[in-house]
Design a protein that fits this description.
It comes from Winogradskya consettensis. This is ABC transporter ATP-binding protein. GO terms for molecular function: ATP binding; ATP hydrolysis activity. Pfam families: ABC_tran. With 253 residues, the protein is of the alpha/beta class. Helix content is 28%, strand content 19%. It has one domain: 3-Layer(aba) Sandwich (Rossmann fold), CATH 3.40.50. Strands 5-6-7-3-8-9 form a 6-stranded mixed β-sheet, sandwiched between helices. The two termini are 35 Å apart.
C-alpha cells in the first residue's frame, strides 16, 4: 500500500531563467489521493513544466508545491538513456535508492521486467535500447515501490500497442491503492482513462475541472491503419472532405 497525500499547487509560479518569461503563473490546483488528472494543452504550453514541479524535478520560483508524498514515481517524456548501465544494473540501482535490496529487489525487478516485456533487453546497455523500450525501463523504475504520486509525461510516446494498453491498467492499479496519477496527453489517449479529471494549460495558465467534449450524436469514430508513406495524403484527403482527425499514432514493431 502506498502512502498517498493531497498534492497542492499553492500560488505556484515558474520560469527557466531570471529574465525569461513565466512558463507558469499563479497555479492553484489540487491532486487528491486516488485521482487521475490528465493535463491537456498544445506543445510548449507548460504541461511538462507543471509535471516536473509536481514530481519535484523543478522547484517553484514563487509559491510552493505542498504535501508531496514520500514516494513519487516520475517518468519523463524522454527517458535519459545515455547512461553506462544495462537495464538490469539500472533497475537494481534505482531499487536500492528506494530501499529495496536482495530478494525483494529481485522480485520487484522481475515482476516489471516480465510485465513490460523487457526480458530480452535485460542485459543490454540503456543506450542500445529503442525509444519505446527505454520508456518501458523508465516506467518500470517508477513502479518498483508503489508510488503515492505517479507522474507520467506523455507515457504512450514510442510504446508498442501491447505496452500502450498497459498504461491505463497501471494507472488504475495506482489509484486503487490510494495513489494519485498526474499524466499529460496530446494523443487523445484520455479516452482509455475513465473518470479522469481534466486540466488544461494555456499560455502558462492552468485551468482545472475542464469538461469533456460532447461528441455529436451523428458522429461515428473510425480507426484506420495506412502505410506511413501514404499517411499525409490520406489525412489531407479526409480533411478536405470535412472529416475530423482526432489522433494519429505510429505503430512500432
Amino acid at each position: 500500500m502506498c502512502k498517498a497525500a493531497r498534492v497542492r499547487f499553492d500560488q505556484t509560479w515558474f520560469r527557466y531563467a531570471r529574465r525569461a518569461g513565466w512558463a507558469l503563473t499563479e497555479v492553484n490546483a489540487t491532486v487528491d489521493p486516488g485521482a487521475t488528472v490528465v493535463v491537456l494543452g498544445r506543445n510548449g504550453a507548460g504541461k511538462s513544466t507543471l509535471l516536473q514541479l509536481a514530481a519535484g524535478v523543478l522547484e517553484p520560483v514563487r509559491g510552493a508545491v505542498l504535501d508531496r508524498p514520500p514516494v513519487v514515481g516520475w517518468v519523463p517524456e524522454r527517458f535519459p538513456a545515455d547512461q553506462p548501465f544495462t537495464t538490469e544494473q539500472y533497475l537494481t540501482a534505482m531499487a536500492a535508492l528506494r530501499g529495496l535490496r536482495g530478494s525483494r529487489s529481485r522480485s520487484e525487478i522481475d515482476q516489471w521486467v516480465e510485465r513490460l516485456g523487457l526480458g530480452e533487453h535485460r542485459h543490454l546497455r540503456l543506450g542500445a535500447l529503442s525509444k519505446g523500450t527505454a520508456q518501458k525501463v523508465g516506467l518500470a523504475q517508477a513502479l518498483l515501490v508503489p508510488p503515492g504520486l505517479l507522474v507520467l509525461d506523455e507515457p504512450w510516446e514510442g510504446l508498442d500497442s501491447a505496452a500502450r494498453t498497459l498504461v491505463p491498467q497501471i494507472v488504475a492499479e495506482v489509484t486503487r491503492a490510494g495513489g494519485a496519477v498526474l499524466i499529460s496527453d496530446h494523443r487523445g489517449e484520455i479516452a482509455s482513462l475513465p473518470g479522469a479529471i481534466r486540466w488544461s494549460v494555456q499560455n502558462g495558465t492552468v485551468v482545472t475541472g475542464v469538461p469533456a467534449p460532447e461528441p455529436a450524436p451523428e458522429d461515428v469514430i473510425l480507426e484506420l491503419a495506412v502505410a506511413r508513406a501514404e499517411a499525409d495524403q490520406v489525412m489531407a484527403r479526409l480533411s478536405a472532405e470535412g472529416h475530423r482527425i482526432l489522433r494519429v499514432r505510429e505503430e512500432r514493431a
